[in-house]
Specification:
By secondary structure, the chain is mostly helical. Helices cover 57% and strands 7% of the residues.
């Protein structure tokens, strides 16, 4: 594959969360073609992995697909960044231990006075 495709609408749930397919596509070292805005666009665009099209616009989707084919997307650099992004933000081997550590720190808040705890008091 040359790119992953996320043909989701810009609804509030998709704007505020990452669809599961993002992790799958990034693990396959692929940039992502999507019309999603919000946090998905922010993440992908900041890392050069965002191939945009206008949701509901067939001509815009066609143009994005042609750009993928004609520009030889993905580049070796895009593939490397996609895989790095997966490992950093979506790989269970990375995120589960980090989440566990975070939860342990939160559980200690009853007895500690640190910045993390102050954010969650009351």
């Amino acid at each position: 594959s040359s790119a992953g495709l996320l043909p989701y609408p810009n609804t509030s749930d998709f704007l505020a969360s990452f669809p599961n397919k993002i992790g799958e596509y990034l693990s396959a070292s692929l940039p992502i073609m999507t019309g999603l805005e919000g946090i998905t666009q922010a993440l992908l665009a900041s890392r050069g992995l965002y191939i945009p099209y206008k949701v509901g616009d067939v001509g815009s989707a066609k143009e994005a697909l042609l750009n993928i084919a004609l520009k030889k997307i993905p580049s070796a650099q895009q593939r490397a960044v996609a895989l790095q992004t997966y490992h950093e933000l979506f790989d269970p081997q990375t995120i589960y231990p980090a989440f566990s550590d975070y939860m342990e720190e939160l559980a200690k808040c009853r007895d500690n006075d640190n910045e993390l705890c102050n954010d969650y008091r009351d």
